[in-house]
Design brief:
Blueprint: E1 2-6, H1 11-27, E2 30-34, H2 51-62, E3 67-70, H3 77-88, E4 92-97, H4 102-107, H5 111-118, E5 123-127
Parallel strand pairs: 1-2, 1-4, 2-3, 4-5
Amino acid sequence: MTVVVAYSEDDQGRAALSYGVAEATLRGSDLVVVNATRGDAYVDRRFAAGSAADHLRDELARLGVDADVRQPIDPDIAGAVLAVVAEVGADELVIGIRHRSPVGKAITGSVAQRLLLDSPVPVLAVKHDGRADSAV
């Protein structure tokens, strides 16, 4: 059994990671954390590079979680996450979501929306509640 977390270096990603760690622990499952970037910008705030990637791995180790952290570079973020879901035979996908305005929904695509609609496994969509994350 495997839980995959679509992680980004923001509040939504940390909420997803917190729930993913809890789900994997509860199920006794493996945990795979996918932190993808399009690779089209010099700086991607949602990509855990350098010290942020080290911090992510340190936090997982501190929690006693043996996680496989993957950081693919792919212009199709949702496709990269779904490829990992298929590759590892995941049982569940955990994603962080945020509120989008109706105009924002119409103008821009949503990685979260695509993951919700195209995932071959159940998706746990979590929102950041504004409190400090207790686990990660």
